[in-house]
Each structure stands twice: as structure tokens, then as C-alpha cells.
Amino acid sequence: MKKVALKTQAREHHANWLELFYDLIYVIVITRLTHTIIVGHDGHVLPGDYVAYFALFVPVWWAWTGHTMLENRFGNDDLIDRVMTLVQMFGLILLAVFAADGVGKGAIGFALAYTFVRFMLIAMYVRVYISNAELRPVTGRFIAGFTLGATLWAVSVFFEPKIMFSLWALGLAVDFLTPILSRKLLSRVSVHGSHLPERTGLLFIIVLGESLLVLVNGIENATLGTDILVRLLLAFVLVASVWWVYFDTMEHALMGKLAGAAQAHIYGHLPIYTGLGVLAAFCHRLLRDPAIITQGSAQLLMASLALIFIPLFVIRRVSTP
What we know:
single chain; mainly alpha; 2 domains
């Protein structure tokens, strides 16, 4: 088998057309997830809806992260890479179908779709393992850890919900710990310092786009009086400010400066992305609630900003010499 080139050794490495196409399915998955905390069920958002949102967002983010990190280190955009990525995307379409009720009637479908996506990623690592003997200590560790995690998800469908969700959490814990416990081995294949912030930034835009969608939907059938326009302006300024601070930080403090801090960058983005979903929920309330700011909407605003900016500050601190 043809040897897979190590992308982290390349001077220039940017997101390719395949990765951008791959991201499109996450637009749909994330929209369906955030719908649960924006509209809820029958127009009512309950505390359990936020729990479901966070619980389902984690595996969705991890699926995206898995492919992104493989492409960061080993992506070749050749025939095999494209076909295996497209097959993975088919699984993500199924994941999107079940995401809206992934902890309810769609739980088994969600688990099976996620398992399929993860095993396709494992197959991509097997390809690197076979073709690159010098990388086998790293890829072998990933294959073993990720296979165990995916297997826990697969067998979870045979159990009642309480045990099923426990196996989901255990599977994710195994997956998360696999790279963390492989830090010494990963020093041989460090991430590409500009590609990773570029990819995480692209997903940031996708999730932030949910807030813009809320702004459009929120005024679509409304009478455009002074009140609604002021609310719209406040929401847009908030969304634009979040975009501004994030990308100023990424551009000036993080691009190409991730040596030894890649895992903080990767895992730190999970709360950032979930915070963007909460921000979209706040924008929806800002446009729809009779009062501009209620106790509930204020709590959403504070939670979203904390989830976004505290991890971003930490990432900046550990990434900047």
C-alpha cells in the first residue's frame, strides 16, 4: 500500500475542498441539535432539553474532531481518502436524522449511526497503520482505544436507556483519554499549527451561524417596528462581537503557536461550541420574550459568554509563549 505522507511536516496545510464538503453535514446536525434548546418541544424549552443538547453535542463534536485530526496529520485527499470520508458522511446523514431526539425514540439510531462513523474513522487509521510502519506506535494506540470506545457504543443498543447512556459516556471517556494518554507518542506526529486553528475556526463559524439563523427566523413574520429592530440590532451586535473577539484571538495569538498545547486547543473548543448554541437560544429569547431581558434570558447570556470566553482565555494562555 502506498505510504501516507505526514501532513504536519508540510510548510503549508490548509483545509481542502473535501474537508469543507465534509463540514456541510455538520451544519445540518448542529441545526437539529440546537433546535432542541431554541424551540424545544411544542414551543417550550425545559431543563432536560439543555441536558440532552449537551449530551448529544459531545459525540457530534468528537466525530468532527476525529476526522479533523486525522486529516491534520495524515490527510492526502487521494481516492481512498475521499471515498472513506464520503462513506463517513453517509453515516453522519443518519446521525442528523436521529439527532433531534437522540436521547428519546431516536437513541438506538443515533448510537448506531455514531458507531458507524467511528468505525469508518478507525478504518482510515488502519490504512495509515498498514502503510506507515514508523507510525504504528501512534496509530496502533489510536486504533485500540477508538475501537474500544466505538464497541461500547455498539453494544449499548442492547440495554435499557440508563445503561445505554452510561455506556455512551464510558465510550466517550475511553476516546478522550486515548490521545491524552498518548501525549509522548504524539510528539512524533505533532499537529499542523495553522491547519488546526483554521479547522476549529470553520466549525466555530458553522455553530455561530445558528444565531444568525435565529435572527432571520425571529423577525420573518414580525412587524418591523422600533422594538423589534432594537432587539435585532442588540442581538446582531452581540453575535458580531463574539465573532470579533474569537477570531482576533485566533489570528494574533494562536495561529502556528500550538506546540505542546494542541490538546488544550482541541478539548477547550467543546465548551466554546456548546456556548455558541446557548447564545443562539438567548438570541431567540431576546427577539421573542415580552421583556428585553428576563431572568431566564440573562442566565442564558451569562452561561453562553462564560462557556465561550473562559476556555478561549485558557487556550490563549497555554498556547502563547
